[in-house]
Amino acid sequence: MSETLFSGLPSLEAGTVWLVGAGPGDPGLLTLHALNGLRQADVVVHDALVDSSCLAYVRPGALMEFAGKRGGKPSPKQRDISLRLVELARAGKRVLRLKGGDPFVFGRGGEEALTLVEHGIPFRVVPGISAGIGGLAYAGIPVTHRDMTQTVTFLTGHDAKGIVPSGIDWEGVAKGSPVVVMYMAMKHLGTITASLIEAGRRADEPLAIVCHASTARQQVLETTLGAAAVAALDAGLEPPAIVVLGEVVRLRGALDWLGALSGRVLSADSARCDLRKDPA
């Protein structure tokens, strides 16, 4: 790897923590800052959602610590993870906390950063491509299109206790946002879809589920809001997954560029037809 590529980029100093987003999975979506940190770090504390191909760029000899949190499975407590970052930094290590997607988009990066501030640990935030944007792009689904929608809502399917967040204004979401992108929604998909329908969304509105986005294991299920929970179960889909609701899902017939690489014939005519549909 050419050294000139990283010339002028910041150094990961001893006693410092970098909170780094790894993107949705494809290592090609790592940023230069992320790669620069990975090749300097003494310790990489990584999530379960970080694809193994991204870890191949860790500096030889660096210590790898797994700190994954997966719903319904034994996981380290968030407070313990945050304090481990403090402990490593105080030991003089160059610490890189690697997270799937973007550390500040449903990634608990804000919580970890606040803990570092409380303990006087210097840190840097390296944004990553969030799965709710980049992952859907790999599925051929744009979250915005000026002829269809100017509003997008991102929400999480579970809170710190693992249940559907009680603070979500489902009526506000249903009426105010033509496109709804849902992180960590698979466990409670039936409850979430029912809440949206009760709040006014059409049961026949197009919905897509993208699992293992941007990786070789990517799966995309196109269905409807009303049928999503059963369809996901029948298809055997499992997290990690991004769920997107809205008329933009129909554009996949024209924009599935990965499918085209495997021989799928894309249709611009169908896209133009879909653009004439009124958004929800």
TrEMBL record:
One Pfam annotation reads TP_methylase
Which molecular function term from Gene Ontology is one that the record holds?
Answer: uroporphyrin-III C-methyltransferase activity
InterPro entries in alphabetical order: 4pyrrol_Mease, 4pyrrol_Methylase_sf, 4pyrrole_Mease_sub1, 4pyrrole_Mease_sub2, CobA/CysG_C, Siro_Cobalamin_biosynth, Uropor_MeTrfase_CS
Keywords, in A-Z order: Cobalamin biosynthesis, Methyltransferase, Porphyrin biosynthesis, S-adenosyl-L-methionine, Transferase
Q: Does the keyword Secreted apply?
A: no
- This protein's pathway: Cofactor biosynthesis; adenosylcobalamin biosynthesis; precorrin-2 from uroporphyrinogen III: step 1/1; Porphyrin-containing compound metabolism; siroheme biosynthesis; precorrin-2 from uroporphyrinogen III: step 1/1
Highest taxon of source: Bacteria
- Protein's organism: Xaviernesmea oryzae
Please give the family membership noted in the entry: Belongs to the precorrin methyltransferase family.
Q: Keyword Disulfide bond on this protein?
A: no
Gene Ontology biological-process annotations: cobalamin biosynthetic process; methylation; siroheme biosynthetic process
Q: Could you say which EC number(s) this protein's record lists?
A: 2.1.1.107
Domain Tetrapyrrole methylase, first and last residues per copy:
16-228
Q: What is this protein called?
A: uroporphyrinogen-III C-methyltransferase
